[in-house]
Amino acid sequence: MTGPVERPATIEDVAKLAGVSIATVSRALRSPEKVAESTRKKVTAAIARTGYTANAMAQNLRMQRSQMVLVLASSIADPNFAGILTGLEKAAADRGYGVLIGNTEGTPGLEQNYLRFLSTGMADGLLLLTGHIPVAGQPPTQLAALPPIVATEKPVSNPDISYVGVDDVASAKVATEYLISLGHRRITYISGGPADIRSDLRHSGYRQGLRESPENLRDWRVDGDGSSESGRAAVERLFIKDDLPTAFFCFNDNTAIGVISALQLRGYRVPEDFSVLGFDDIPFASNISPGLTTIRQPRHHIGEKAMTILLDKLANRSLPPQRHLLHGDLVVRESCAGISRKRVG
To answer: Judging by DSSP bridges, how do beta strands 187-190 and 294-296 pair with one another?
Structure first.
């Protein structure tokens, strides 16, 4: 003898369990941005408990929504990626969305493969961490056919696309001013390479810091590519020329770690002989010796803000593009010291 067939959960079941009206449940599914966060959480929990999830997904299909967002990243191994992703996923979950991750490895073919998620309706919007629009070189109509896009971490050149990231210029200026305050007057900036717009922005902030110093300080840029190896190579080039700074301001922490390694291999001490300052505050920055003084990116906040802007745009396509630059914090550790302690010879 078989037992009674369990009936499918209904929207009335969800409303009763959540302690809200049927209209509120419907609104939470159709326009979550119009429902208070506490109410959305009650509805989401009730959907999970009643098994109404399948019904809600069917409703999304009828509305031609997948409730998913595609995140394109050049490399998920980037030390900044995990922190930004945590913020993205939190903001998405709060609004009833999921996240798909596309690791492009800088390959156009992979980018195009991931874009099929958008063309087939498997994702409603696109978050770019690659620094460029994935349809570069394609007709403008192809970009217009894409759903809403928000860029984060790396700016893109299109003014119609919203962007959320750290204020590279202001943060680099703070870093440079800090080194100047320690008495440094010969400060080298090691860049991140010509393909990364953030490198030029940070160089601009570095130059602003130099210009606003009472002395006429030298703009001393050495090319790198953002890797630790490029930091080591930059040090070697400077030693070959016998033209040495007292401090290094590096495009990112990876570069700074390479600089410290190269100096230590030559028998120099950081910060007694040279000061080194990075950018990003990756997890490893506090675990090397000496601990790296750096600029901390508010990665979690960046992710949350970027996802919020994208989901707002999905709910209201008429919203104009936005640009939010968040403050980077100077994190002082042991890799920088006053010029009086230098013993460069």
So the answer is: unpaired
